[in-house]
Amino acid sequence: MTGERSNIISPAGFAALRAEYDALLGDERPKLVETISWAAGNGDRSENGDYIYGRKRLREIDRRLAFLARRMKAARVVDPAQQPDRSRIWFGATVELADEEDMRRTVTLVGDDEADAGAGRIGWNSPLARALRGAAIGDLRTVVLPAGPKEWEVVAVDYP
């Protein structure tokens, strides 16, 4: 995998970005514009809650749309199922790790926009994912965490 800071993403992750963009642009934003124009027609705008809130929410939506557009433009879609070297950890790998106390943890390396640590999906540019890149079963990797360095052993590597 090339590009340390490239925005690689799985096909499902890209579809989720696209779906959010389409929902904001095609559904939520037009309804909000309609509400704002209705509220503007009610007279005094300085004390009109619908108008004030609507304008604020419209700016939030426009910022989010711009962010999503930039992320999708920079995205490089990589299908983990097409990974040629399945013996090592690369994008899309599901990895079982064991620490010094033999506590097990399973993580999947996904794009930064898809990361959800609570669900075991860690971003490609996270410290743990960077440490695991290229590792094979049996390899030891040290990750520097805020609490100090922690060593993990790769127990299993799997791809979809």
Automatic annotation (TrEMBL):
Q: Where does the record place a coiled coil? A: none
Signal sequence coordinates: none
Q: Name one GO molecular function term.
A: translation elongation factor activity
Q: Which InterPro entries does the protein's record reference?
A: GreA/GreB_C_sf, Tscrpt_elong_fac_GreA/B, Tscrpt_elong_fac_GreA/B_C, Tscrpt_elong_fac_GreA/B_fam, Tscrpt_elong_fac_GreA/B_N, Tscrpt_elong_fac_GreA/B_N_sf, Tscrpt_elong_fac_GreB
Q: Which Gene Ontology BP annotations are present? A: DNA-templated transcription elongation; regulation of DNA-templated transcription elongation
What are the Transcription elongation factor GreA/GreB N-terminal domain coordinates in residue numbering? 8-77
Keyword field? DNA-binding, Elongation factor, Protein biosynthesis, Transcription, Transcription regulation
Show the Pfam families listed in the entry.
GreA_GreB, GreA_GreB_N
Q: What NCBIfam families does the annotation carry?
A: greB, PRK01885.1
Name the PANTHER family for this protein.
TRANSCRIPTION ELONGATION FACTOR GREA, TRANSCRIPTION ELONGATION FACTOR GREB
- Give the UniProt family note: Belongs to the GreA/GreB family. GreB subfamily.
Q: What does this protein do?
A: Necessary for efficient RNA polymerase transcription elongation past template-encoded arresting sites. The arresting sites in DNA have the property of trapping a certain fraction of elongating RNA polymerases that pass through, resulting in locked ternary complexes. Cleavage of the nascent transcript by cleavage factors such as GreA or GreB allows the resumption of elongation from the new 3'terminus. GreB releases sequences of up to 9 nucleotides in length.
Identification of the protein by name: Transcription elongation factor GreB
Q: What is the lineage of its organism?
A: Bacteria, Pseudomonadati, Pseudomonadota, Alphaproteobacteria, Sphingomonadales
